[in-house]
Design a protein that fits this description.
two-stranded antiparallel ribbon; single chain; 4 helices; mainly alpha; 4% strand
Amino acid sequence: MIAVADDDDDDFDVFVVTIVTMLVFWAAHVFATAVANHGMRGGRIIGIGQAFREGVHHSKGLLYASVVPLVFLVLGATGVLDEDTAYFVALIVGMVVLGVLGWMAFADRGSPWPVRLLGGVGTALFGLVIIVFKAVLH
């Protein structure tokens, strides 16, 4: 979710754009989950309130996963780290978070460690692909 920075953007600008983008993406995910879960399921009616709560619960990982990369953008924006270094570390940490999530997803399925490792590397590399696409398209 980290915004692609232009040369004249500082880390605070990137932080704000990233927060707004992440919140919009999270809200869209909550809405889509609520709409998908609303209605008759398994012979019982799921009300919109319950469907919304389930959407929030289901989507909270999107918020959690963004915390650590955003911390590095704040460190760059406040001068604790060099802005370029903070931006780069935030991108790398985001990829690491994806890798850990991939490992955990395969661990939940009971996969052996080599499959977990491949799953983690695969999800981290997907993060790299997204970073490259964003850089090329912006």
